[in-house]
Give the backbone structure.
Amino acid sequence: MRLSTKLILWFLVFAFGIVALYTAASYISPTNTNFAVYNSVFVVFFIVFLGIYSSAQVFRVQRRRRRRGIKPSCEALQPFVGKRCKITNSGAGGFSMTGVVESAQDKWLAMQTGKPGKQKLHVLNTDYIMRIREKE
């Protein structure tokens, strides 16, 4: 989906939320529709909607891969083993991490991040990897 389409959809969701909030406020108290009282309710519902939307988006990506028969293969990740790479992940809201790829086996990728002496080992599921690229 293009960025402009996403922005329009988010604007519509936000506008719908404001209209729903105003309607609820006027239904609860028809004489005094104090919009500021219900802002916190709207923010909570908006955050819940964001969480549901991001998890649904991850599910859609996985379902599309299954339908197309795309199986994440560690054979495709083997050229990156031992190199410094940046990985973009689609799980848990999406994030990026940079580090040295240690190994790729089955559906798991081991990555070493951090400075020498403070290194951490991260194990990632290849189902959630959206992009991997080599850093210099």
The mean pLDDT is 76. The two ends are 30 Å apart (CA to CA). Residues 78-134 form a domain with the SH3 type barrels. fold (CATH 2.30.30.100).
